[in-house]
Amino acid sequence: MMDIGDIKEYLPQRYPFLMVDRVVELELGKRIKAYKNVTTNEEFFEGHFPSKPIMPGVLIIEALAQAAGVLGFKSQEKKPKDGYLYYFVGADKVRLKRPVVPGDQLILEAEMGPVRRGIYRFVCRASVDGATVCEATILCAERKE
């Protein structure tokens, strides 16, 4: 549904911090399903941990926030190039349930909740092979630069 070129239109992040490779499902104003292919070449594996590489939990949360950002931007048809940004402002009910390792395909799902005073709420889930690895409610603030 959206390849990396399309995703870059809606996210300001770039290598090595762009964490969404493809969007496979999108219902504007409702939900998104995307993925990140986790490879052994990820820079963070050099230090986390060299003998047993595990994707840091905060980067799993960042990947979920980026998928949520694509949903928010695309639903509003606002883009970073037009001066809009979504700032990550919080995460509630975060649960990390199992490690993510090289070779995993991290499935990123977000459902858009209520928007209040420019704060967007997304209920998110990350999974690998159908098993939940992370759940969180992510809060983002939309800002015009």
How would you describe what is shown here?
By secondary structure, the protein is α+β, with helices and mostly antiparallel strands. It has a single domain, classed as Thiol Ester Dehydrase, Chain A (Roll). A 6-stranded antiparallel β-sheet has the order 1-2-4-5-6-3, with helices on one face. The protein is globular, with a radius of gyration of 14 Å.
List the helices and strands and how they pair.
Layout: H1 4-10, E1 22-27, E2 31-37, H2 57-76, E3 84-96, E4 105-116, E5 119-128, E6 131-144
Antiparallel strand pairs: 1-2, 2-4, 3-6, 4-5, 5-6
List keywords for this structure.
145 residues, Thiol Ester Dehydrase, Chain A, 2 helices, 43% strand, globular
Quick recap:
With 145 residues, this protein is of the alpha+beta class.
How helical, in percent, are the residues? 10-25%
Identify the CATH architecture. Answer: Roll
SSE arrangement, N to C: HEEHEEEE
Q: How many domain modules?
A: 1
**Unreliable spans:** none
By DSSP (H or I, 4+ residues per run), the number of helices equals 2
DSSP summary, beta strand count: 6
Straight-line N-to-C gap:
28 Å
> Which fold name fills CATH's third level, the topology?
Thiol Ester Dehydrase, Chain A
Instruction: Give average pLDDT, whole number.
Output: 96
